[in-house]
Amino acid sequence: MSKAKPFQIVYHEFVADCLDWVESRDVRRVRETIDEQLSWEPLTQTRNRKKMKKEAFGRDTWELRFDAYRVIYEADGRERTVTVLAVGVKAREKFLVAGKELEEYLR
Predict the structure, then answer these.
(1) Considering all CA atoms of the chain, what is the largest pairwise distance in Å, rounded to the nearest integer?
(2) Contacts of 93 (CB under 8 A, 6+ apart)
(3) Is the pLDDT of residue 55 over 90?
(4) pTM for the whole structure
(5) Among 36, 39, 62, 86, who pairs with 72 as Cys (CB 3.0-4.6 Å)?
(6) In terms of Cα–Cα distance, which of 13, 88, 7 is closest to 42?
(7) How far apart (Å, rounded) are the C-alpha atoms in residues 102 and 107?
């Protein structure tokens, strides 16, 4: 019996812009949380990991929540890859990515 391999985590080119808006002291923690939470069961819904109701980036996407941060990603179970599409913060009812609301960022 073979062991399942962890999912490979890939960062979309836009994520660098997103991380520029994350407090420098938190960037490492954001990356560590992504690795911890998305390496093994990114397609399993939990209290802090949910499939988004609306498509973002024109595809089925998931949201990982921790502290004030939100990570938008897509996962391919067959290829065992997770693509991180955006990292942002929740500010009241707004989801800000690279200093803009998500809808504005996606335009």
Answers:
(1) 48
(2) none
(3) no
(4) 0.87
(5) 86
(6) 7
(7) 9
Who contacts 97 (Cβ-Cβ below 8 Å, separation ≥6)? 18, 21, 72, 86, 87, 88, 105
CA distance 17 to 59: 20
Backbone angles phi, psi at 40, to 5 degrees: -115, -45
Closest to 34 measured CA to CA, from 77, 66, 68: 66
Domains of the chain, CATH where assigned: 8-106 (3.30.2310.20)
Q: Tell me if 85 sits within 8 A of 56, measured CB to CB.
A: yes
Does the pLDDT of residue 78 top 70, yes or no? Answer: yes
Average pLDDT of the residues in 81-95: 88
Q: Token digits for 69?
A: 């941060």
